[in-house]
Amino acid sequence: MLYCIRQELGMSQAAAANLIEISIGYLSEIENGKRPTPSQKTILKIATGLALSGKKKTDFLSLATAERITAHLGKTLPPETIDLMIYLQVWAPHIDSQTLNEIRQRLYEATSKLHDSHTVNYGTHQTSYQL
To answer: Contact, 117 vs 97, CB < 8 A?
Structure first.
């Protein structure tokens, strides 16, 4: 993802690393997947250094956040589930509420016969639903 953005901007690794204020080696390791997704602070530093704005910045931050969240879930969730989570993380802010409700309803219908009722806590929000 970062590599593609840098290429779109027509920047060398050295120029990008200089703008972001990180080493070329660290940038290379991020781009080649040799480092885990950076911290939120570093992700913001990258977005600011590359002067990302608008939709490109939002998409970059969303995808990087999704990668951080799903990195540890990869050990427990199937790849298809992780792909779906990343896709929703990136695109949900751009999807109207009616479509999101339709997606939620389809997931509910697809899983309603699998389990009994469950309660899930999301921070301060609690949702009870039938799986």
So the answer is: no
Q: Output the average pLDDT for the chain.
A: 80
Of 94, 4, 89, 5, give the one whose Cα is nearest residue 47.
Answer: 5
Q: Are 99 and 84 in contact (CB under 8 A)?
A: no
SS (H, E, C) 44-87: HHHHHHCCCCHHHHHHHHHHHHHHHHHHHHCCCCCHHHHHHHHH
Of 125, 80, 88, 82, nearest in space to 104 by CA: 88
Tell me if 12 sits within 8 A of 28, measured CB to CB.
Answer: no
List, for residues 21-73, the tens digit of each pLDDT value.
Answer: 999 999 999 988 888 888 889 999 999 999 999 888 888 888 787 777 777 66
Pull the structure tokens for residue 67. 């990668």
